[in-house]
Amino acid sequence: MKPGVKQLSEVATPFASVAEQQNMVGQDIPWLNTIRQQALEQFNSQGLPSKKVEDWKYTSLWNLAQQSFNHDAQASSLTSEQSEKVALLKDAYRLVIVDGVFSAELSLLNDIEDGLTISPLSSGLAQVEQQLGQQVDVAKAGLTALNTMLMNEGIVVTVAADTEIVKPIELLVINSGQTDNLAIHLRNVVVMNKNSKATLIEHYVGLADKTAMTNVVSEVALDDAAELNHYKLQQESNNTFHIATLAAKQAANSKWNTNNISLGAQLARNDVHSRLEGEQSHTTMDGLYLVNGNQHIDNHTRIDHLVPNTTSNELYKGVLDDNSHAVFNGKVMVHQDAQKTDSNQSNHNLLLSRGCEIDTKPEMEIYADDVKCGHGSTVGQINQDQLFFLRARGLDEVSARSLLTYAFAVDVLERIPSEDIRQALAAVIEERLPRGGATA
Questions:
Q1: 68, 89, 421, 428: most buried, per Cβ within 10 A?
Q2: What are phi and psi of 341, to 5 degrees?
Q3: Contact 368, 337 (CB under 8 A)
Q4: Region at 340 (left for phi over 0; alpha for psi -120 to 50; beta for the rest)
């Protein structure tokens, strides 16, 4: 057995048996069965990563491995009113997945603009044969192999060439709590053709405080001059394990603007990876994590500058309270031929208690000599001079601390171009911040 691999006998859920026995979407498609078989063999060989694996050094999957997850969801009784209440946007195309099952009744997919197709993975596989599995590596330590062999739903979005989609697209994934220990495995595929533009929000919500698992892989293909504004909001139960991979390949002049906001889950792991394969391509990779109690959040990001004249800008911020633990590991790789690269990376953290902990490791590996690159991180507490300033002007201590915390956190949202999305996310963050909202 390879070092750092957890023996499959130590994993309570027989994932490999589930893959062999479960009726999977697309099980009659030869090319998909080939991919799944490769993933199954990889998982049987690899298992779950342990802390001996460098990328998982600060994150243990022991608690996840001890859970007996259920892959058969009960029929949901979720109403349209409940779905509407938790949706981030009111005016958007919306594809709703409840307990791992696509709900046509709760989705809003009428009057779709020309050049746009939106479908659940279960009916959209024929559109993505050339893209599915191309942005991720099942051999990499993590849960990608597990996702590939068990993926059973998700969203497929394609935007035609020379098309700008005005209305945002929201993928709303809801765990209703009606099925105990439910595990869902979702695969999202987004194909942006030449000179296209769209906005996508991945939104994960838990309605009950029950143990659950969400394992999601999102793959993005950006053709020449394509632009995708891609946001993710994770609001799941504090008993949920949320493991996510988000990966994109970018052609010349493309833009991928991401913002990854993590609020829920007892353990959340986000792997975000961009490959800049065409000149003049750009990545904005932002994120915000707010954790308290005993929550653990791990953000691993990677940006590969593979050709000359590419740019990237990354800002991740964290607010930690109680006994929470956060990890940030961001790597920027400037490859040998990637001259004229312009890249900036930063991670800033605000600690609100003595018991919380952050492990932050911004990294740059540069193999070109004509570049402009910078990176750094900060860890601190609320500025006492600023706190005194607000107290001197009549705010009580709780309100003053809340205002300063809110101002620190929402800075991440300023680069979101859509005012509606920016305000919706700001409202969610204000509700979630430790010690109350912005004006408590």
A1: 421
A2: -70, 140
A3: yes
A4: left
